[in-house]
Amino acid sequence: MTPSARLAAAIDLLTAMDAAPRRPADATANSFFRERRFIGGGDRRAISAIVWDVLRQWRQAEWLITQVGGEATPRLRVAVRQFLAGESFGDIAQSFVEGKFAPGALARDERRYLETLATNRPDATSMPRAVRLEVPDWLLPHLEATFGETLETELAAMAGEATLDLRVNTLRGDREAARKALLRDGFRAELTELSPWGLRLSGRQPITASAAFKEGLVEIQDEGSQLVVAMLGARPEMRILDYCAGAGGKTLAIAMMMQNRGHIVACDVSVPRLEGAVKRLRRAGIHNAERHLLVPGDKWAKRRAKSFDRVLVDAPCTGTGTWRRNPDARVRLEENDLKELTVKQAEILDRSAALVQPGGRLVYATCSILNAENRDQITAFLGRHPDFVSVVPDAPEVPASLAGSSMLSLTPGRNGTDGFFAAVLERKEG
Ligand SMILES: C[S@@+](CC[C@H](N)C(=O)[O-])C[C@H]1O[C@@H](n2cnc3c(N)ncnc32)[C@H](O)[C@@H]1O
């Protein structure tokens, strides 16, 4: 594809995203490329890179376009991306050419807006803080409360691209074997610093095509997510419940820690998500896991009250810790989403706590960076459940720099991982 054709495709993809504003951008992108199988891998990555840049500069671009009297259309957003990257008006105009696979020339209004931006750049000091930091206005006070003085550094780290982290499945081989296997397929991976099972690659790479992935030697999992599982302290022969298992990302790591011995139940309320776990469990060679679909008034759960050694609650959350991967989520997030999620998280915590046996542990986790979904939930839970206490886990897989606390709090700025939170609670004996 020519650079102009890529630009045209990026504009089409942004238009598709505009038409489905509540749908995650990566879901829209997946459908978009599925319907255009003629677009090869290299072009796909280039088009996605343009679109993800636009998503990362969403509020700033809108602000700039509004300052010169325009409205933020996909075409103008793509053009402003070039402007923000330092391109001149002439260069931008040249990339908007006529042709079958091209975006078409800039319209008169578009030229006027872009020329004004180029010659009379709006004063950045008048840009509101929330716009400059690319967060919704209502969320800024929450982020200020969480990060205080480090807010700008943290948000800068969240504006960058995420690494591609893999977890080596030690049921299939060790990190060195996995690294060599990946190299044979042309993928260069480094050992992660914090997780004992992690390998790290840069950017977006077609890792699912590698033999190591196909044979279940590696699984895609952020290093932070691996450490959350480490906090659970799963061991062979335990009975473990992964209460919000989704497609089994953490179930797989738990089963690995259990060396395939003992019993693990992966629960969720979503059929398609649980279905998604089947192939992954098989690929990883796991045979101590069963799946269970949670339904309202679940008798299954009632019969298993106080019966698990470990219960992991990887709760539905705002996903604010994954903004590097999903920059669109920043602007999609609404105040009401946070309100609804915190209510849901408390309900799930209460329900899952009933399944923990005396002396057993409940690990509550989110991929959020907000206190309201993390520490505040734990404080409120301990207030409602005097039979639980916070404990420091015996988790040798958690590195010394992060161990020693009942809570794990990871951020892209501090740890180079996605933002994750985990708290370990124990049900008192007797
Ligand atoms: C953060 S995701 C889990 C991700 C998964 N543990 C992983 O590591 O890939 C949260 C999950 O909670 C599930 N969920 C939502 N409401 C729930 C409920 N009331 N009880 C149990 N699971 C629920 C969602 O379907 C979703 O799969």
UniProtKB/TrEMBL annotation:
Keywords: Methyltransferase, RNA-binding, S-adenosyl-L-methionine, Transferase. It holds the Pfam family RsmF-B_ferredox. S-adenosyl-L-methionine binds at residues 268, 298, 314. One of its GO terms (molecular function) is RNA methyltransferase activity. It comes from the Bacteria. One of its GO terms (biological process) is RNA methylation. The keyword S-adenosyl-L-methionine applies. Belongs to the class I-like SAM-binding methyltransferase superfamily. RsmB/NOP family. This is rRNA cytosine-C5-methylase. It comes from Acetobacter aceti.
